[in-house]
Amino acid sequence: VLKWKPALLQSQSVDSKALQERQKQQMARSLPKQKPIAGVKQVIVVASGKGGVGKVFSVCVSVSAVNLALGLMTNDPSKSVGLLDADVYGPSIPRLMNLKGNPELTDNNQMVPLTNYGIPCMSMGFLVEDVAPIVWRGLMVMSAIEKLLRQVDWGLLDYLVVDMPPGTGDVQLSITQNIPIAGAVIVSTPQDIALLDARRGAEMFKKVNVPVLGLVQNMSVFQCPNCNHQTHIFGSDGARQLAETLGVQFLGDVPLHLNIREMSDRGKPVVVSSPDTAVNTELVPACGSEEFSTQKVLRQALFSSFMLRNNRRGNKINRFEPCLCNPG
């Protein structure tokens, strides 16, 4: 009969810790050194663990990034904001920002971003045909990301908002390891399956030392346009509870609203098309953390843009009651 010896266990534990430490040192040596993007003060990434949860704050994975960029500029017109579409396989920024055409080149062979609504934008969608599929292997995608990061003439920017592709793969790692990132905003819908992937995304950012500025709960509630009854189609408070579990800020809710979807499809972000429907920024409580001042700016930018006035009518929310317009 074999007997475990405490001394042997202790020795194995020490060896295991030493091995882990050596592996960390080897990984650190092999990682690329982070190099800032010329002219850019702060980079904020907008990410989700799963596609379709509305990083773009509505129907596709990019509406949040678009409206966040516009919200940052609207909140403080003295700040310059750029928008980078890092979703190589499914670029959405050209449609959402109503931009077409190819970027011009500077004398230094740098691409000049296309601009609309005062936001300079860069996307793979400017470099390929509208309906052409991007069927590339990993090395080509990494090369494209490198060009989007290093061969764009942004000028001077206070913020560069990066619309990340869904998931936690090569593109995400390449971006977080190559440039210094001020923080990440994670977008999720309330249902459990989306929250699982949102948590994976948060853990990935933790591993690469990128602070999570907070979680946004998208499609949190549907409000009937006729009777104003509110229904939690995808559940309620899932992202809020996940934020508490992770110990990060909950930045707020974004409703499932027809206007956001329609305006996004037309290339007219709701911040621009419907500024009169936004809740005043004083209704958004200031972020309690002073450790990272951008958190307060993010809350104001996001929810001065998205929280609609209809949600202020004070109707009691009961997801189990039928809509008053429905006789059933």
TrEMBL record:
Q: Which UniProt keywords apply?
A: 4Fe-4S, ATP-binding, Iron, Iron-sulfur, Metal-binding, Mitochondrion, Nucleotide-binding, Transit peptide
Keyword Ubl conjugation assigned to the entry: answer is no
Principal localization?
A: mitochondrion
Name the needed cofactors.
Answer: [4Fe-4S] cluster
Q: Which Gene3D superfamilies match?
A: P-loop containing nucleotide triphosphate hydrolases (3.40.50.300)
Report the locations given in the UniProt record.
Mitochondrion
SUPFAM superfamilies given in the database record: P-loop containing nucleoside triphosphate hydrolases (SSF52540)
Q: Does the keyword Thylakoid apply?
A: no
Molecular function terms from GO: 4 iron, 4 sulfur cluster binding; ATP binding; ATP-dependent FeS chaperone activity; metal ion binding
Query: What biological function has been recorded for the protein in this entry?
Result: Iron-sulfur cluster transfer protein involved in the assembly of the mitochondrial membrane respiratory chain NADH dehydrogenase (Complex I). May deliver one or more Fe-S clusters to complex I subunits.
Spell out the family assignment given in the record's similarity comment: Belongs to the Mrp/NBP35 ATP-binding proteins family.
The entry's protein name is Iron-sulfur cluster transfer protein NUBPL
Q: Which organism is it from?
A: Lates calcarifer
Which gene produces this protein? NUBPL
